């Protein structure tokens, strides 16, 4: 309670930005010429994809307090998105040092990413926060321009673009570009300590993990019928969680965090997925998602990860990940993304009397902010930093579970990596007038998965 | 007297536990025009399985705030002053997920569609009331739903729920004012808690830091206060209508009737009663707390949602229904008045 002087409520925390300085080495101003070139030490940013998360990422970026940083260019396919975003940033950073985006550096259109990146110098940072279908296109250009990158998760929705991203990333590594992927749970202090403890054997060998993101209708996963006056392409982008080519749908966009944090604790990626799911309550929604997904992942050593995702209103809700080992169990996260409330119990059930360790509460370092501090720190101090490979693996593993549910087949990782179903052929050529790679049927609905009937691709 | 009320409300509740897929599309609740005629009742929500138990709160006068001698007292709890309150009904418990998600997750609309039952005129009006954008996360934070209190909503969301419920039921429901809340919480007492000053009894009445096991609990399990209200202390802090202004009491005339500080800023606004994560002293009847922007800390979207406080895991609300429903003008100038206007961003 910042307004009063009496005993602080638990609901009030330190401001995240204030807490940051205590936890990361942000005081160094030594700058490597290779890392970035601006003689005034200013890191310039361009924002490509100005939705809510993109604006949030820009806010986190501009809140990093280890040297001059400013936003100079923005791009989106919706003018209102860009204007709302700029307006909101202006409200947060009335100090114009941080926000210098003249009108001629605001770009509307599918080629806006190039123009926005052209406003930057090598060593600056581009924020890629469009739906993930465009990620490989934008990443390729960022590498060409010698830019450091922050990209949101997921980074791919299908196998061909995963292969493209991994190939592109070789060039980024050669150029020593610093590239962050928005799997922010990896930057959470509590989870990092838990990871250390698990590697030290505190719960023994992990043989079973379970993760849940069971909630009501989420994001734009349910897309209502398209109104008049907007093209299929633009409507789909507006409801990108509803369409597999854009986002990988509810599985890729929502479940990836719990899948990734579980695999991180296990230090491995699963090699196989079996899954089920179905559509019971889509009503007149025209999206391609199921209401519910249950995925069983198997690791090389036979260990299992069970993932439950649901977007049905009125049901039990849970957003948490747990690891069970031969000597005990760990709570990886139990309260949405953050605070993690990481804990270790000596038995298989989280009973108070079995509590062996817990991360001290309250957790003060918001991982959304931490991931930016780590990236900018790496840029200013020329520390090797590239999260793309694990971002790709998290994305394809998540897609493997999604495809297992959508086809009703067992999916293996090596088979998954080789698939040739490109969800968005020709995406690099899209314009505001283009037809969408996904065409509606005559009744305005879209192709949906038919497990067991359509087995080799997720929709036909 | 209270015993017979309990039986009446049990009978009401029982009538909504029938095996019909849909409960009777009947929002009829006992009408009363005088304080003497006010009885407890259960407000059904048409075409759903839910009902909200309401208990009558008699009109009267009380001393708002705490005496300087009260242990743990904060400056904003004084000076004590006389306040007059008109009669109203108040939710016996905090609004639960079962009651809240009907609006938040459009359960009523889904049930009408699935079971093919037509919308009543009230339904049609209620369908036009704004509902929240879907959240990105489980807003119960894995602590349990159903009879657990709904949490993490902004005051705007709680107000909008009341608006929807009013249209849906044909009765006027709103959040309590800060003064109504404290009056109802005290239930005639002048002590630190509604059961006296003995903090060792708090466990019988409230979920808080010492006994909550780090989460909220199903509503109505602890002892009620003298007016039959459960969980006024603890479980979750509860929204009121007012802007939080630390020196409100100093600037108030004694004897004021139904005071309200109409909000003109988003923060801070008043929550009352303390929650499962608060210490005993923060659960006192007189404690005032203002909302804070930190309550949105982990909302990664900008602009942050007008509907959710992602970090207010111990903030919920309960509803009231004044005996005398206000005129449209009174609603516009007092009870429903709030600024700045809250609108979701529109992407053309």
Describe this structure in words.
The complex is a heterodimer of chains A (460) and B (348). Chain A is α/β, with parallel strands linked by helices. Chain A has 2 domains: 4-184 and 370-388, NAD(P)-binding Rossmann-like Domain (Rossmann fold), CATH 3.40.50.720; 186-364 and 397-412, Dihydrodipicolinate Reductase, domain 2. Helix content of chain A is 32%, strand content 18%. Chain A contains 13 helices and 15 strands. Chain A has helices at residues 16-23, 52-62, 79-92, 112-118, 135-144, 159-174, 189-199, 232-238, 244-247, 249-266, 367-380, 388-407, 413-418, and strands at residues 43-48, 69-76, 106-108, 125-128, 148-151, 179-181, 206-215, 272-278, 292-298, 304-311, 318-325, 329-333, 343-345, 355-358, 411-412. In chain A, the strands form 2 sheets. A 9-stranded mixed beta sheet of chain A has the order 14-13-12-11-7-10-9-8-15. In chain A, strands 3-2-1-4-5-6 form a 6-stranded parallel beta sheet, with helices on both faces. In chain A, helix 5 (135-144) packs parallel to helix 6, helix 6 (159-174) packs antiparallel against helix 12 and helix 10 crosses helix 12 (388-407). The longest helix of chain A has 20 residues, at 388-407. Chain A is globular, with a radius of gyration of 22 Å. Chain B has one domain: paralog of FGE (formylglycine-generating enzyme) (Alpha-Beta Complex). In chain B, strands 1-2-5-11 form a 4-stranded antiparallel beta sheet, covered by helices on one side. Chain B has a 4-stranded mixed beta sheet with strand order 9-8-6-10. In chain B, helix 4 packs antiparallel against helix 5 (155-169). The interface between A and B is large, with 62 and 55 residues.
- Proportion of beta-strand residues of chain B: 5-15%
Instruction: List the total number of helices of chain A.
Output: 13
Query: What class would the helix/strand composition of chain A place it in?
Result: alpha/beta
Q: How many structural units, i.e. domains of chain A?
A: 2
Radius of gyration of chain B: 19 Å
Number of strands of chain A: 15
What is the CATH homology-level superfamily of the largest domain in chain A? NAD(P)-binding Rossmann-like Domain
List unreliable stretches of 5+ residues of chain A. 1-39
List the helices and strands of chain B in order: HEEEEEHHHHHHEEEEEEH
């Amino acid at each position: 309670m910042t307004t009063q002087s009496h005993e602080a409520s638990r609901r009030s925390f330190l401001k995240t930005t204030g807490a940051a300085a205590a936890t990361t080495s942000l005081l160094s101003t030594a700058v490597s010429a290779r890392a970035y070139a601006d003689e005034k030490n200013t890191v310039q940013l361009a924002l490509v994809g100005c939705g809510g998360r993109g604006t949030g990422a820009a806010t986190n970026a501009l809140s990093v307090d280890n040297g001059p940083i400013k936003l100079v260019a923005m791009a989106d396919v919706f003018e209102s998105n860009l204007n709302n975003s700029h307006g909101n940033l202006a409200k947060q950073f009335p100090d114009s040092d941080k926000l210098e985006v003249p009108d001629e550096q605001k770009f509307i259109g599918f080629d806006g990413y190039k123009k926005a990146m052209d406003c930057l110098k090598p060593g600056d940072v581009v924020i890629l926060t469009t739906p993930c279908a465009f990620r490989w296109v934008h990443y390729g250009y960022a590498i060409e321009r010698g830019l450091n990158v922050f990209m949101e998760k997921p980074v791919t929705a299908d196998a061909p673009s995963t292969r493209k991203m991994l190939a592109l990333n070789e060039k980024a590594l050669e150029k020593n570009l610093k590239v962050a992927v928005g799997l922010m749970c990896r930057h959470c202090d509590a989870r990092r300590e838990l990871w250390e403890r698990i590697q030290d054997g505190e719960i023994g060998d992990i043989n079973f993990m379970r993760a849940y993101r069971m909630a009501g209708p989420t994001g734009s996963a349910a897309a209502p019928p398209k109104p008049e006056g907007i093209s299929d392409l633009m409507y789909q982008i507006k409801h990108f969680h509803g369409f597999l080519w854009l986002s990988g749908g509810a599985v890729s966009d929502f479940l990836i965090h719990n899948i990734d944090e579980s695999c991180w604790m296990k230090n491995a990626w699963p090699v196989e997925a079996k899954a089920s799911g179905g559509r019971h309550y889509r009503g007149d929604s025209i999206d391609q998602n199921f209401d519910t997904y249950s995925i069983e992942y198997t690791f090389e050593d036979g260990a299992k990860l069970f993932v439950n995702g649901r977007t049905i209103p009125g049901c039990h809700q849970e957003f948490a990940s747990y690891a069970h080992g031969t000597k005990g169990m760990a709570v990886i996260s139990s309260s949405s993304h953050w605070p993690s409330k990481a804990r270790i119990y000596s038995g298989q059930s989280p009973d108070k009397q079995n509590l062996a360790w817990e991360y001290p509460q309250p957790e003060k370092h918001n991982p959304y902010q931490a991931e930016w501090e780590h990236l900018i720190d790496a840029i200013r101090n020329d520390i090797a930093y590239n999260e793309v490979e694990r971002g790709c693996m998290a994305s394809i593993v998540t897609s493997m579970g999604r495809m297992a549910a959508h086809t009703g087949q067992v999916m293996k990782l090596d088979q998954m990596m080789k698939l040739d179903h490109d969800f968005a052929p020709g995406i690099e050529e899209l314009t505001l007038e283009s037809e969408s790679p996904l065409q509606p049927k005559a009744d305005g609905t879209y192709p949906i998965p038919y497990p067991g009937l359509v087995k080799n691709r997720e929709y036909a | 007297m209270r015993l017979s009320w309990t039986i009446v409300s049990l009978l009401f509740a029982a009538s909504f536990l029938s095996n019909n897929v849909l409960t009777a599309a009947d929002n009829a609740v006992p009408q009363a025009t005088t304080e003497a005629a006010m009885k407890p009742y259960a407000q059904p929500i048409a075409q759903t399985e839910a009902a909200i138990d309401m208990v009558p709160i008699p009109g009267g006068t009380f001393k708002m705030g705490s005496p300087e001698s009260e242990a743990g007292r904060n400056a904003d709890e004084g000076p004590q002053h006389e306040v007059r309150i008109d009669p109203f009904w108040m939710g016996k418990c905090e609004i639960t997920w079962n009651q809240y998600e009907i609006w938040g997750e459009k359960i009523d609309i889904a049930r009408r569609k699935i079971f093919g039952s037509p919308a009543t005129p009230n339904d049609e009006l209620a369908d036009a009331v704004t509902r929240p954008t879907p959240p990105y996360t489980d807003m119960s934070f894995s602590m349990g739903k159903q009879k657990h209190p709904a949490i993490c909503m902004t005051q705007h969301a709680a107000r909008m729920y009341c608006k929807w419920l009013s249209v849906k039921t044909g009765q006027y429901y709103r959040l309590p004012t800060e003064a109504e809340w404290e009056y109802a919480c005290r239930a005639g007492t002048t002590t630190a808690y509604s059961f006296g000053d003995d903090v060792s009894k708090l466990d019988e009445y409230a979920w808080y830091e010492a006994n909550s096991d780090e989460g909220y609990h199903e509503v109505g399990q602890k002892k009620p206060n003298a007016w039959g209200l459960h969980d006024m202390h603890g479980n979750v802090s509860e929204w009121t209508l007012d802007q939080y202004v630390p020196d409100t009491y100093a600037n108030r005339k004694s004897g004021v009737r139904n005071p309200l500080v109409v909000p003109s800023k988003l923060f801070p606004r008043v929550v009352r009663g303390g929650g499962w994560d608060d210490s005993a002293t923060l659960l006192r009847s007189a404690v005032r707390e203002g909302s804070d922007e930190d309550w949105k800390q982990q909302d990664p979207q900008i602009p942050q949602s007008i509907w959710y406080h992602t970090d207010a895991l111990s903030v919920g609300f309960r509803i009231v229904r004044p005996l005398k429903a206000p005129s449209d003008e009174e609603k516009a100038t007092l009870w429903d008045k709030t600024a700045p206007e809250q609108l979701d961003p529109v992407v053309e």
